[in-house]
Amino acid sequence: MIYQGDRGGAGVPHVEAWESLPHVPLPEGRWGEPYRSVDGMWRACLRRPLTPAAEMAGLLSVVIAADLATLAGLQAQQDEQAARGGFHWSRA
């Protein structure tokens, strides 16, 4: 890794094309980080798309709620429904 300061910059790291990127651990769990949308509702999306069979079973890829506590409850409900249906999340 070369620092931009070595090239006359302000010490900002620069990764050359031949260098590998720094290791970042894979995120845990089925759900991405919850966020608040412009309409004020909290949303959480699955990290991976649902299979057609999971969609047919009624699982949701996005849950929406007015507050974080309700959102967490909806996520837990979807996780339980997925487990009952035999739909297991994997990183692959």
Notes on the protein architecture:
Strand 3 and strand 4 form a beta hairpin. The longest helix is centred in the C-terminal third of the chain and has 17 residues. The mean pLDDT is 85. The chain is of the alpha+beta class and 92 residues long. The chain has a domain of 59 residues. The chain is extended, with a radius of gyration of 20 Å. A 3-stranded antiparallel β-sheet has the order 3-4-5, covered by helices on one side. The protein has a two-stranded antiparallel sheet with strand order 1-2. The protein starts with a strand and ends in an 8-residue tail after the last helix.
Assembly state (oligomeric): single chain
Radius of gyration: 20 Å
Shape: extended
Mean pLDDT: 85
Lateral arrangement of strands in the main beta sheet: 3-4-5
What ranges have pLDDT less than 50 throughout 5 or more consecutive residues? none
Beginning-to-end CA distance, first to last residue: 30 Å
Backbone structural class = alpha+beta
Helix count, per DSSP?
2
Q: Please give the number of β-strands.
A: 5
Succession of helices and strands? EEEEHEH
Main traits of this protein?
extended, 24% helix, 92 residues, alpha+beta, single chain
SSE blueprint and pairings:
Elements: E1 2-3, E2 13-14, E3 35-36, E4 42-45, H1 52-56, E5 62-65, H2 68-84
Antiparallel strand pairs: 1-2, 3-4, 4-5
